[in-house]
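I hope you will forgive my troubling you with a question about protein structure. The matter concerns a single protein, recorded as an amino acid sequence and a row of backbone structure tokens. Please examine both parts with care and let me know of anything in them that strikes you as inconsistent. Here, with my thanks, is the record as I have it:
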Amino acid sequence: MLSLIAKRATNTILPQFNNCSGGTNFVKSIAKMSHQASYETLSVTVPSEFVYHVELNRPDQLNAMNKTMWLDIGQCFENLNTDENCRVIVLSGAGKIFTAGLDFQDMLTLAPQLAEQEDVARKSKILYQLITTYQKSISALELCKKPILAAIHLACVGGGVDLIAAADMRYCTKDSWFQVKEVDIGMAADVGTLQRLPKIIGSDSLVRELCYTARKMPAAEALGSGLVSRVFEDKASMIEGVIGIAKEISKKSPVAVQGTKVSLVYSRDHTVQEGLDHIALWNQLMLQSEDFTTATVAQATKQKDTVFAKL
């Protein structure tokens, strides 16, 4: 086994270092991103190689989530899921707040469509198609194999909670607050909060309180309940810190990181044994990847700045 690792190390690690041109590849990555991805309501940048930064970008509307934004979110994370230049994603909001949630002005455009239909079954069909379309957009974050780090500042309301609940990790500023707003507008949250939040926060009682009362949860409580991992002084230090965490993740084997996310998501919704069976089947293939050899040799030789091929 050791001889096999040594042989494969010679064939995999050295060529990668000899052919490595980080600066050039980084520029190419940015160029590829800029001409392939353009969204009306999102800004996508590459602050560091393999790290993509997605910003909700309707600052004048407090990043209220209109139909275009819902569709942009789904399309963006589907695209990044298959982009070999992307290994980690930071999600934040441009402007004064992270998001005010649902765009009510945009939702008013739905009224004429419903008014045209007299039958409840036909009205229901329109609403069902809209709800499931928005559900798929939010679930695109969870289905994306790349870790998603949400960076929240000030307000995160309604649909914003749905959005961050589908991310891998959450961070916020000390003046942030979170609100499951839907009951205040006469509806139950329907695109992910009620399904994901109980599995993020350890207290079922607290989740129900938040969802039944629509009260605001401040940053300190969000940290104490496990909704966020860390609270930062302000937005600038948060973005810098979260991108720093993303950079660390981006240096790891993409095979290992993406496999870990797939297994965590699968295991959350299955029994322990089903999760064990799933990762056994996954790793019987992935342990044959060159990344395993590369990482093993790097650890054994105390090698720093290991380079992994794109995936």
User: Anything to note?
Assistant: The beta strands are 42-48, 51-56, 88-93, 148-152, 155-157, 169-173, 177-179, 217-218, 230-232. The radius of gyration is 21 Å. Confidence is low (pLDDT under 50) at residues 1-22, 31-36.
